[in-house]
Design goal:
Elements (H helix, E strand, L loop, with lengths): L1 E12 L27 E16 L4 E16 L4 E14 L4 E16 L3 E2 L3 E15 L9 E13 L11 E14 L2 E13 L7 E13 L5 E14 L9 E14 L4 E14 L11 E13 L8
Antiparallel strand pairs: 1-2, 2-3, 3-4, 4-5, 5-6, 5-7, 7-8, 8-9, 9-10, 10-11, 11-12, 12-13, 13-14, 14-15
C-alpha cells in the first residue's frame, strides 16, 4: 500500500503545460531545464495526491488498484483552474517465464474553470485494454541483469456524453507498444508508442485524441560518468463538433544530459533541451501563442545525502 501527497507553488511557463512526456525506461538523472525569462511567465499552485494497493495473489497473478487526483490553480496570469482524477485497475497473469497477459481499466475525469467565464463542462472517459508482454532474460541470475521486454496492448476509450462532448464520436481506439532493452548494466534503450484520449490541463477544456512516440537512451560508460537522451513527438486532434476543420496540436521535444560524479555525494552536470509546439487554432487554448520554439542549456552541481545510515 502506497500513499503520496504533494503541494508546490511554481513560477512556471504557460508553454510548460504542453511539455513532452516524462522519459520512459530506467530513471535518468535528468534535470528540468527552464526557458529564459519572458512574457509568458505564470504562477501556479499545484496539489496532488495518490494511493495505490498492489497484491500478489500467487506466483502467476498480481493486481494493482490506483487512484490519483491533481489540481492546478493559476495564481498570477491567465489560465484555467484544472482538476484531474483517475481510478485504474491493472491485472497481470504470468503464463510462463517469458509471457504475461496484461489487462486494465481506467476512468478519467477533468474539470476546468475560468475566473471570468465560470466552470466548463467536465470531460469524462473510460478505457479498457488488454495485451501481451514478452520478456527474455539474456543473462543467468544472479549475474548483472540483461533483458529484453516488449509489451503490446490495445483497447477502446469511451467518452461520456456531457455538454463538452455532445455530438462527437464517443468510441476511440487506444493502443500502447513498449519495448525496453537492458543490454548491459551500463546501457539501456526504450521506445514507446501510444494512442489515447487526454485534455490539456490548464489550457483547454476540449478533449484530444493524441498519438505519442518516444525514444529514450541512457548509459554509464564508467562508474563516474552517466548520460541520458530522451526524444518525443506528440500529435493531438481536438474533438469538438463546432470545429469547421480538424484543429490539431503538434509538440516535439528532446533533452540530453551528461553527469560526472566528483565523489559519493556530489556531481557536476550539463543539460540541453529543445522544445517546439504548433497549434492550428489559437482560439482553442487560453493564453498560448500558436507557435513557440526554444533551446535551453544548463550546467551545475548536484548534491545528495542518505536519509539514514552512511554511504
Amino acid at each position: 500500500l502506497t500513499v503520496e501527497a504533494q503541494a508546490t507553488y511554481e513560477p512556471r511557463w504557460a508553454i510548460g503545460l504542453l511539455q513532452v512526456p516524462d522519459a520512459i525506461g530506467t530513471a535518468s538523472p535528468s534535470n528540468d531545464v527552464a526557458p529564459p525569462t519572458g512574457i509568458f511567465e505564470r504562477r501556479w499552485l499545484y496539489m496532488s495526491g495518490s494511493g495505490s494497493y498492489q497484491r500478489q495473489w500467487n506466483r502467476s497473478h498480481s493486481s494493482v488498484l490506483t487512484y490519483n487526483r491533481r489540481h492546478l490553480e493559476p495564481v498570477v496570469g491567465t489560465g484555467l483552474a484544472s482538476t484531474f482524477q483517475r481510478a485504474s485497475f491493472d491485472h497481470a497473469w504470468t503464463v510462463s517465464r517469458s509471457v504475461s497477459i496484461v489487462s486494465g481499466y481506467r476512468f478519467d475525469e477533468n474539470s476546468q474553470r475560468d475566473e471570468d467565464l465560470g466552470a466548463f463542462p467536465s470531460v469524462r472517459y473510460q478505457t479498457a485494454d488488454a495485451g501481451l508482454r514478452f520478456t527474455r532474460q539474456l543473462s543467468p541470475l544472479p549475474s548483472p541483469l540483461r533483458r529484453c521486454s516488449v509489451s503490446m496492448s490495445g483497447g477502446v476509450t469511451s467518452v461520456f456524453e456531457t455538454d463538452a462532448t455532445r455530438n462527437i464520436d464517443t468510441l476511440h481506439p487506444s493502443a500502447t507498444v513498449l519495448a525496453e532493452f537492458e543490454l548491459s548494466p551500463r546501457f539501456g534503450l526504450a521506445s514507446r508508442f501510444s494512442r489515447s484520449i487526454s485534455v490539456l490541463a490548464g489550457a483547454s477544456a476540449l478533449p484530444l485524441a493524441n498519438d505519442i512516440v518516444e525514444v529514450s537512451l541512457r548509459g554509464s560508460p564508467t562508474q563516474r560518468l552517466e548520460y541520458s537522451v530522451h526524444t518525443s513527438f506528440f500529435r493531438a486532434q481536438f474533438l469538438a463538433p463546432s470545429l469547421t476543420r480538424a484543429a490539431s496540436a503538434d509538440v516535439a521535444g528532446a533533452n540530453g544530459e551528461v553527469r560526472y560524479a566528483l565523489s559519493h555525494w556530489a556531481a557536476v552536470f550539463g543539460a540541453y533541451a529543445f522544445y517546439h509546439h504548433r497549434i492550428d487554432d489559437e482560439t482553442l487554448v487560453t493564453g498560448f501563442p500558436p507557435r513557440y520554439e526554444r533551446h535551453s542549456a544548463r550546467i551545475g552541481v548536484t548534491f545528495w545525502l542518505p536519509v539514514y545510515g552512511a554511504f
